[in-house]
Amino acid sequence: RSCSFTGFSTVQSRKLAKSLSRSSVRSRMSLKSPKAYSSLQKGAVIWDPKPLQVKKIFEALKKGLNEYLEAHQAELDYLSGRHKDTKRNSRLAFYYDLDKQIRSVERYIRKLEFHISKVEELYEAYCIQCRLRDGATNMKHAFSLSPSTKASRESLVELYKNFQGCTEDMCFIEGALEVHLGEFHLKMKGLVGFARLCPGDQYEVFVRLGRQKWRLKGKIETDDSQTWDEEEKIFIPNLHEQFEIKVTELRGLATILVGVVTCDSINFFTTKPQAIIVDITELGTIKLQLEVLW
What we know:
Blueprint: H1 10-22, H2 25-28, H3 51-88, H4 92-145, H5 150-178, E1 184-192, E2 202-209, E3 212-220, E4 226-228, E5 232-235, E6 243-251, E7 254-263, E8 274-279, E9 287-293
Antiparallel strand pairs: 1-5, 1-9, 2-3, 2-6, 3-4, 6-7, 8-9
Helix pairs in contact: 1-5, 3-4, 4-5
Protein name: RIPR3 protein
InterPro entries: FAM65_N (IPR031780), RIPOR3 (IPR026136)
Family: Belongs to the RIPOR family.
């Protein structure tokens, strides 16, 4: 749908441009922390925001946090029920120990509720900046179609500044949101390959998430068991990067590439450990088994 802004007054356009610039999230939110959001410090390269990816991560994160909240609320209800029974007919020491557990769970629930509210606040601010950025883009397009005048050129310059400001704010919020994503604990469970895996075979597995790397070597033993020089690694979730897994077979001084795959982390935001089986080869003759705990 196209619109004409030929009759749009200079005063109106300047007012709208100023209102967009006043909406800068960094002027309204006391979230700035150079230590926490190092990717947005002075001199850092501003990347292109990805609203659809951020939405997917936000929904998965919120769902996972609510799962944790429900689990701990159920635990609190159970402990509270035992607390009432214990108060009537049990030893005093056991009663106080139960009371201590209840208070600990209550504190954790409050932390989770605050965590969820902070994530929601960040995403709400992100959506506002996204809409303002889209509005600035649409207005830039509309002004570019109208006759060029001094007023329209000034408005275009102002709109470009607002577009850049919204882009920076969105990237700032993305950095702030990443701080709330928690950690992924990856455990190496081994390769699955049936006839493809023989005693004495040696493999190297390389896992990467953005700048985070994990390189480990393993060997197939005579009893078909596997030994790996490292079995666990912690990764910090990233909004924009996927897990990249590369497996190579070591044959003396030579290395043979078995396969390279990417794995989305969107399903890892859950309370229960996830068993992940990844097809390393196209036909699935060799698979990699990992366990992920968020």
